[in-house]
Specification:
twelve-stranded antiparallel β-barrel; 19 strands; 2 domains; Immunoglobulin-like; four-stranded antiparallel sheet; mainly beta; Porin
């Protein structure tokens, strides 16, 4: 009897310690693109690995263990090891949708650089954005976006935008806050113009595809050597079309004696090609009170 008990305990121990090799691919639920650099760890242990450039992974684990999948900007995922025999694991972004100046999220893409230029006056420009999803292992959800345009002579346009995302986070509604500093120096018809805007607004995201923005624009303006201040209302509507990866938007600035508006279109170049999926082409038409801009941009997401 004692021998049977001993054999039973031994077999139980061997079973619980049995090893298997899990393997498969990790992709984005929304875009179906592979997720390189995701962390795969045997829960409760230090045994782990990361996915390669194609989202592929392989790891030897205990057969009865649970596997923990993590990646910045995506929801954590727990899957029993026995279910990971070549299956494709889909991870869902924590931040689906889009922001006015930074189309095409997943927010796992934390940095982008690119070119932009105004065909009319300032053909040379540079843009950059950086998103910080976590800070000391806590959700932070803030981003920096900046650009500069110039003709290398008398015209320049400099913008800095700071955004705090998902202050309120519900299934169908998300609230964010945006502050923008925008400085423009121009020479138009031999007249020097200077504009300095500080724009404070809210971003109201509905169902992760529609953005409604509203805020106040404080403007300091110099024209013909005369300085004066004005306050305007800013309203914007932006729509993301998932099936085509297209972003369309319209924004209106209203002041006491003038109305300004912009029309924007951003297009990600591919759903399936890993390189082209990181490229985004944009066009913005802006009608200011004293001049017009036709801005073309090309952005590349670094990660």
């Amino acid at each position: 009897m004692k021998l049977l008990i001993l054999i039973s305990l031994l077999l139980s121990f061997i079973t619980t310690q049995a090893q298997l090799t899990i393997h498969g691919y990790i992709i984005d639920t929304e875009t179906k693109e592979p997720i390189p650099g995701a962390t795969i760890v045997e829960k409760g242990k230090t045994n782990g690995t990361t996915s390669d450039i194609d989202g592929k992974y392989r790891l030897a684990v205990d057969s009865n263990s649970v596997i923990h999948f993590t990646f910045i900007g995506f929801k954590d995922l727990l899957v029993p090891a026995k279910n990971l025999n070549g299956e494709t694991v889909e991870m869902t972004s924590e931040f689906p949708g889009d922001d006015i100046f930074i189309p095409h999220y997943s927010y796992s893409r934390t940095k982008s650089v690119g070119f932009l230029g105004d065909a009319n006056r300032m053909p040379y420009g540079f843009l950059f954005h950086y998103f910080k999803p976590y800070f000391f292992r806590r959700y932070f959800g803030a981003s920096l976006h900046t650009w500069i345009k110039t003709d290398l002579k008398s015209n320049s346009d400099f913008l800095v935008q700071l955004s705090k995302h998902e202050i309120i986070n519900l299934n169908s509604y998300k609230l964010g806050a945006i502050i923008i500093f925008h400085n423009r120096d121009l020479l138009i018809n031999n007249e020097k113009l200077h504009y300095r805007d500080i724009l404070i607004k809210t971003n109201n995201k509905l169902y992760n595809v529609i953005n409604l923005e509203a805020g106040v624009n404080f403007r300091q303006q110099t024209k013909s050597g005369i300085k004066f201040d004005s306050t305007g209302i800013n309203i914007g509507l932006y729509r993301y079309f998932r099936w085509s990866l297209t972003h369309l938007g319209i924004a209106i600035n209203t002041f006491k004696d003038q109305i300004e508006y912009s029309l924007s279109c951003y297009q990600t170049l591919s759903k399936n090609n890993l390189f082209l999926n990181r490229l985004q082409f944009g066009f913005i038409y802006i009608s200011y009170h004293d001049y017009k801009e036709s801005v073309i941009s090309l952005r590349y997401y670094l990660d």
